[in-house]
């Protein structure tokens, strides 16, 4: 199992996260090219540089805002700065911006999950609905780059699990558009509800709302225990010089067990009074909110009534979202919940060049040996549509390409 670990001993911000991802191995040019799909290139540029903090070498990412239509000078947008006076977009504006781009569906969904976390927190803090909140924090160009960039980087790494240490949030007060507010900022601590934090290592804001949203939306487990073999380490540099290293450390590692165990939940409900046409819509919504699997079993209930047993496999992190869909969009008034242990083969992803284009391949290993591989459906579907061929033809080409590669090696 491929694991990404966030070591947030000095907190986390959006730009520190991008720096850490690039330092870990995410291709900087790839990140910039993917971000260009948002069609915002005229509003900013990205500078990537190497530097040190307290003797630790790492990568610094600066989002530099370009001169606006009023002739104001460009500005660096970075960690802990009050840089939200540009582009006061609302959440709907950002959603339209992301959905109109040619980013992958995975990146779009992940990006919107992070924006929604901040939107909900800001609405709660200011006592308003999401539509009423003026999202200067969410709408700033650097926040868009930081969060969409985080989604792109995590998709690039294709890890099986994301783990984080407790989050250092700092202390003291920070100046924002509303005046002096305590650290952690109200929006930050709202986002971090249910997540272990530490405070007071410096009298300064070390975790920003953007950084908190990246963790809250993507991390599967928060723990100090690093129970895996570390393979690569990256450091993302913050702006300020502190008594402690102002860096975010990330690690890529691997659980070496041939069969991997994970604890998940099975949620089930019996339904005998719902229009069958609704199941397709409900299934789509369940997958959108993080269901790992959805399946339906025909059953006979009391008084001989034909019914459907709706079963959903989900992790603890997304349980509440799945329950919301079930209780709001189906006729169910009750759920059965049970914990299950899921055994999985170790998996690795690679990109295979075929005559039709690149296809992502998922390799599965048992007792350290490759036992099966599979072309990813979404890539195969896209290639089939672009080349006006069947998906079966794409699968055949993948098989032939792999066979040729094996023969050339032998």
Describe the protein's architecture and organization:
The protein has 410 residues and is of the alpha+beta class. The chain has three domains: 2-254, no CATH class; 260-334, Transcriptional regulatory protein pf0864 domain like (Alpha-Beta Plaits, 2-Layer Sandwich), CATH 3.30.70; 344-409, Ubiquitin-like (UB roll) (Roll). The chain contains twelve helices and 18 strands. The chain has helices at 14-24, 28-35, 91-99, 105-126, 136-139, 141-157, 186-191, 209-218, 278-288, 319-329, 377-387, 391-409, and strands spanning 2-7, 44-53, 56-65, 75-77, 161-164, 167-168, 173-176, 179-182, 197-198, 221-222, 229-237, 247-254, 259-271, 293-300, 306-314, 336-354, 357-366, 369-375. It has a six-stranded antiparallel beta sheet, with helices on both faces. A five-stranded mixed beta sheet has the order 10-5-1-12-11. Strands 2-3-4 form a three-stranded antiparallel beta sheet, with helices on one face.
List keywords for this structure.
32% strand, five-stranded mixed sheet, six-stranded antiparallel sheet, Alpha-Beta Plaits, Ubiquitin-like (UB roll), 34% helix, single chain
């Amino acid at each position: 199992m491929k694991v990404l670990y966030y070591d947030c001993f000095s907190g986390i911000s959006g730009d520190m996260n991008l720096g850490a991802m690039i330092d870990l191995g995410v291709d900087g040019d790839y990140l910039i090219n993917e971000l260009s799909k948002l069609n915002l290139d005229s509003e900013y540029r990205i500078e990537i540089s190497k530097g040190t903090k307290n003797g630790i070498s790492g990568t610094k990412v600066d989002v530099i805002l370009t001169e606006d239509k009023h002739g104001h000078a460009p500005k660096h947008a970075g960690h802990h700065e009050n840089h939200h006076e540009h582009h006061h977009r609302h959440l709907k504006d950002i959603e339209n911006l992301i959905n109109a781009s040619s980013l992958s569906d995975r990146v779009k969904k992940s990006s919107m999950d992070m924006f929604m976390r901040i939107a909900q927190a800001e609405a709660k803090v200011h006592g308003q609905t999401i539509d009423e909140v003026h999202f200067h924090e969410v709408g700033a160009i650097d926040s868009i780059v930081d969060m969409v960039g985080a989604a792109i980087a995590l998709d690039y790494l294709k890890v099986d699990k994301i783990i984080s240490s407790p989050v250092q949030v700092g202390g003291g007060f920070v100046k924002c558009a509303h005046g002096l507010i305590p650290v952690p900022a109200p929006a930050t601590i709202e986002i971090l509800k249910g997540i272990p934090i530490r405070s007071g290592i410096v009298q300064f804001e070390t975790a920003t709302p953007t950084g908190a949203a990246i963790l809250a939306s993507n991390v599967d487990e928060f723990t100090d225990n690093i129970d895996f073999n570390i393979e690569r380490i990256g450091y993302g540099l913050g702006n300020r010089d502190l008594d402690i290293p102002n860096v975010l450390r990330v690690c890529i590692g691997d659980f070496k067990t041939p069969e991997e165990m994970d604890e998940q939940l099975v949620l089930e409900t019996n339904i005998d009074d719902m229009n069958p046409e609704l199941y397709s819509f409900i299934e789509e919504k369940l997958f959108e909110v993080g269901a790992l699997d959805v399946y339906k079993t025909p059953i006979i209930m009391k008084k001989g009534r034909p019914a459907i047993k709706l079963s959903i496999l989900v992790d603890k992190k997304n349980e509440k979202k799945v329950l919301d869909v079930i209780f709001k969009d189906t006729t169910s008034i009750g759920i059965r919940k049970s914990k299950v242990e899921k055994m999985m083969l170790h998996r690795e992803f690679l990109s295979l060049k075929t005559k039709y284009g690149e296809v992502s391949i998922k390799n599965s290993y048992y007792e350290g040996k490759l036992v099966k591989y599979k072309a990813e459906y979404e890539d195969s579907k896209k290639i089939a549509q672009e080349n006006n061929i069947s998906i079966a033809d794409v699968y055949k080409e993948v098989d032939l390409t792999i066979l040729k590669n094996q023969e050339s090696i032998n």
